[in-house]
Write a structure and sequence with these properties.
The protein contains 5 helices and 7 strands. By secondary structure, it is α+β, with helices and mostly antiparallel strands. Helix 3 packs antiparallel against helix 5. The longest helix is centred in the middle third of the chain and has 18 residues. The radius of gyration is 15 Å and the shape is globular.
C-alpha cells in the first residue's frame, strides 16, 4: 500500500489541473468539522468562524489537503495542542515544534521527496506538502509556512 500511495501521489502531481475537479459549493466550516471527526483523540483545538464560509472547490481535494496537514501536525508536534483556525480569509494550522525551522528550510517544504528527518525515523515519503501545494494552487489559494518561537504555522489564504 505504501508503493500504491507513492504512485497515486506522483500521478496526481503530474496531472494537469483541468479535468480533475468536481467543483461544487461547500461550506468550509462544516466540511472542516466533518474531517476533524476522524481525529477525536488528537489534541486539536478548532476555532471556527461565527458565520459559515462557502467556497466552490472540490471537496475530496479539500479533504485530502486538510487531512495531510493535520496528520503532519500530529506527527511533528512536540507538545500542547494543534490549533486550527478558519476565517473567511484563511485557514491556519499551527503546532509546537522542538526547534525553530529556518526560512531556507521552510522554502523547501513543498519540494517532492523533501523530508526534514533524514534519519528515516519518521513515516512518509516527502510528498504530502507537495500535494498540499498543488491543491492550494488548483483552488487559486495561497500557501505560506512560518516558524517563530517554536510554533510552526501553515497559512492558506482563501480567495
Amino acid at each position: 500500500t505504501g508503493m500504491e500511495h507513492i504512485i497515486e501521489s506522483l500521478l496526481f502531481l503530474a496531472k494537469p489541473q483541468d479535468g480533475i475537479l468536481q467543483q461544487v459549493p461547500i461550506q468550509l466550516s462544516r466540511s472542516t468539522e466533518e474531517i476533524l471527526e476522524k481525529y477525536e483523540e488528537a489534541p486539536i483545538e478548532y476555532h471556527k468562524p461565527k458565520k459559515e464560509i462557502s467556497s466552490t472547490i472540490d471537496y475530496e481535494l479539500y479533504k485530502r489537503m486538510l487531512t495531510n496537514l493535520i496528520e503532519n501536525a500530529i506527527k511533528y508536534k512536540s507538545a500542547g495542542k494543534i490549533n486550527i483556525s478558519l476565517t473567511k480569509e484563511s485557514l491556519e494550522i499551527s503546532n509546537s515544534v522542538e526547534k525553530n525551522i529556518s526560512p531556507e528550510e521552510l522554502n523547501r517544504f513543498t519540494e517532492r521527496f523533501y523530508q526534514r528527518d533524514t534519519s528515516r525515523n519518521t513515516e512518509g515519503y516527502g510528498l504530502g506538502l507537495a500535494l498540499v501545494a498543488k491543491i492550494v494552487g488548483i483552488f487559486g489559494w495561497t500557501l505560506t509556512f512560518e516558524c517563530k518561537e517554536n510554533i510552526f504555522t501553515v497559512k492558506i489564504g482563501i480567495k
